[in-house]
Write a structure and sequence with these properties.
Blueprint: H1 19-25, H2 37-51, H3 67-81, H4 84-87, H5 90-105, E1 106-107, E2 115-116, E3 119-126, E4 132-140
Antiparallel strand pairs: 1-2, 3-4
Helix pairs in contact: 2-3, 3-5
Length: about 160
C-alpha cells in the first residue's frame, strides 16, 4: 500500500476543488502541500509518467462518505493536467456517464438519498503523452435484493422512478 488519504464529506460544496487548486497541486511533490485528493492524483500521475507503469487509486469508505465525488475529482484532475479537458472534452464525456450509472445503481437509503449500491472500477486510458484517451467503468457487487425489497423509508434504484 502507498499513500493513504482520509477525506471527510462535509455535505456541502467547498472552494477546495476549483481549477486553480488543481493547478496548485499539479507538479508538486507529495507532502509539499496539504493532504488532498489532488495530491494523491498528482502522485499517481507522476509515477505513471516516470515509471511507465499502471497506477491505482482505491477510494474506500462507508455509505455517504463521498467516494463517488472523490473519484470524480481525481478524474477532473487527470483530465486537466493531461490537457485532454480542453482538447477533446473527454472529462465531460466520462463524467456525463455518471448520472446514468447512478440512476441504474444508486438508491435512496436512510443515510443517503443517492447511495451507490454497487462498486465501481474505473479504468482511465492515457496515450504516450499522458493525455486521457478514454475510460471504462465496470460495476460489481450490485445489491440485487434491493430490486424486490426495501427497508422502511428506503427505495430501490432511481431508474425505477
Amino acid at each position: 500500500s502507498g499513500i493513504v488519504l482520509v477525506a471527510i464529506n462535509p455535505y456541502e460544496q467547498l472552494p477546495i476543488y476549483e481549477q486553480d487548486v488543481i493547478y496548485a497541486y499539479s507538479g508538486q511533490n507529495m507532502g509539499d502541500m496539504d493532504p488532498h485528493i489532488f495530491a494523491v492524483a498528482e502522485e499517481a500521475y507522476k509515477q505513471m509518467a516516470r515509471d511507465e507503469k499502471n497506477q491505482s487509486i482505491i477510494v474506500s469508505g462507508e455509505s455517504g462518505a463521498g467516494k463517488t465525488v472523490s473519484a470524480k475529482y481525481a478524474m477532473r484532475f487527470f483530465a486537466t493536467v493531461g490537457g485532454s479537458a480542453s482538447e477533446t472534452n473527454i472529462e465531460a464525456k466520462v463524467l456525463a456517464s455518471s448520472p446514468i450509472m447512478e440512476a441504474i445503481g444508486n438508491a435512496k437509503t436512510t443515510r443517503n438519498d443517492n447511495s451507490s449500491r454497487f462498486g465501481k472500477y474505473i479504468q482511465i486510458g492515457f496515450d504516450k503523452r499522458y493525455h486521457i484517451i478514454g475510460a471504462n467503468m465496470r460495476t460489481y457487487l450490485l445489491e440485487k435484493s434491493r430490486v424486490v425489497f426495501q427497508a422502511e423509508d428506503e427505495r430501490n434504484y432511481h431508474i425505477f422512478y
